[in-house]
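Hi support team,

I've been running sequence recovery on a batch of backbones for a student project. Most finish fine, but this one hangs at about 90% for roughly twenty minutes before it completes. I'm not sure whether the input is malformed or the queue is just slow. I've pasted the structure tokens below so you can try to reproduce it. Let me know if you need the job ID as well.

Thanks,
M.K.
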């Protein structure tokens, strides 16, 4: 059975713990953005097609979805720290296999296992936040983590581009393995157990997964969760399509692509900073509505622009506006979803992450439907997911807590 949530005030987390948790959530952008510019090179080096190379993205996202779904609820029973340590160690090993992969089949399999084990850090970071914070404090901490996390999509492609300018895609995965070892060290020293034994699930092992249907039946959790998931689908359509748009269509080199991608990723950092500053001054639901409206308008403008033939400067401006809009959505949607069911934080984080990864995995092949030089499928996928995200929010029941501007005693 579920433990009852504590009514006592929840403490602030130490800065070192917040930073360490943010590095765990950065695993996804690190695992994706560092090697994006190398996708055409991987296809050539391993003698495969661009569509098959895209499967390395899809496999990673599907692995992340499955890993979160299986381990998140289990952590409601075992605690957060043991699976976190095991997952980070195995993720490092999987990354080394990517470095050594002799064929595209081995690379796809290793990417799946890398996503599966890396997912453990992502799902448990969110669960730890839900364990140790409440109310607007959760929203602020999510915003701070999004700011730190947002630096990864800026730095990762720059690191990847530098390596590709002096080496090959294999060295990108070698550097990733080193970074994962550092993150493992942060977990060991700065992330303590956040779920005491008296708050854990009891009963047989499989009883850990009883929380998933309980969480899924919560109408408000489901609405905010789907809002986040579809917004992420739009972001991943941009992530998976941008190397081909900016390199094959716009003619950018691998190095110049990483610069552009990094600048666009700053939009998430800036928006997350703005959202964190506005928490407690503007209602979370209003901030979320504003972000989704901006997301829909920007993706519609991008689609109309692509219908007339993409031009370099307008395309970059619209892509930056899109990532900025995503940054307005992710942290607020996460905190609103998790606060609905914090008594089952592991299951709630797992369902959210699994659905997010599944939709991200579907976005990649949708973008690739038109081939490596087609750009309209990318814009249409971004537009479709943005519209679905806004519909999900508008149909989610409202509560007074959505408009809370100060902490309740």
């Amino acid at each position: 059975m579920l433990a009852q949530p504590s009514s006592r005030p929840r403490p602030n987390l130490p800065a070192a713990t917040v930073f360490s948790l943010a590095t765990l959530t950065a695993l996804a952008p690190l695992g994706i953005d560092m090697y994006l510019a190398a996708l055409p090179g991987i296809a050539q080096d391993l003698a495969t097609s661009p569509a098959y190379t895209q499967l390395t993205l899809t496999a990673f996202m599907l692995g992340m979805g499955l890993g979160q779904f299986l381990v998140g609820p289990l952590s409601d029973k075992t605690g957060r720290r043991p699976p976190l340590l095991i997952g980070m160690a195995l993720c490092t090993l999987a990354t080394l296999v990517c470095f050594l992969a002799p064929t595209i089949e081995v690379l796809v399999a290793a990417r799946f296992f890398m996503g599966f084990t890396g997912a453990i850090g992502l799902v448990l970071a969110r669960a730890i936040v839900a364990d140790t914070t409440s109310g607007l404090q959760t929203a602020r901490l999510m915003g701070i983590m999004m700011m730190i996390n947002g630096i990864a999509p800026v730095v990762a492609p720059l690191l990847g581009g530098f390596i590709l300018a002096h080496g090959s895609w294999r060295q990108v995965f070698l550097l990733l393995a080193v970074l994962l070892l550092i993150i493992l060290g942060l977990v060991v020293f700065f992330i303590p157990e956040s779920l005491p034994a008296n708050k854990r699930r009891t009963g047989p092992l499989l009883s850990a997964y009883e929380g998933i249907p309980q969480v899924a039946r919560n109408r408000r959790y489901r609405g905010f969760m789907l809002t986040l998931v579809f917004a992420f689908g739009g972001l991943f359509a941009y992530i998976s399509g941008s190397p081909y748009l900016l390199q094959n269509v716009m003619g950018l080199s691998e190095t110049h692509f990483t610069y552009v991608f990094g600048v666009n990723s700053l939009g998430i950092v800036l928006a997350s900073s703005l959202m964190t500053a506005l928490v407690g001054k503007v209602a979370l639901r209003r901030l979320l509505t504003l972000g989704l409206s901006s997301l829909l308008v920007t993706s519609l403008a991008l689609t109309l622009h692509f219908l007339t033939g993409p031009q370099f400067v307008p395309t970059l401006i619209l892509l930056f506006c899109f990532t900025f809009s995503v940054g307005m959505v992710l942290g607020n949607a996460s905190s609103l979803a998790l606060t609905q069911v914090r008594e089952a934080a592991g299951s709630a984080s797992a369902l959210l992450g699994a659905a997010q990864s599944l939709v991200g995995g579907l976005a990649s092949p949708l973008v690739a439907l038109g081939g490596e030089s087609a750009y309209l499928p990318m814009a249409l996928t971004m537009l479709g997911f943005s519209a679905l995200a806004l519909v999900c929010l508008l149909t989610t029941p409202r509560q007074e807590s959505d408009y809370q501007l100060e902490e309740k005693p």
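--
Follow-up from support: It reproduced on our side and the slowdown came from queue contention, not your input. The chain has 15 helices and no strands. No action needed from you.
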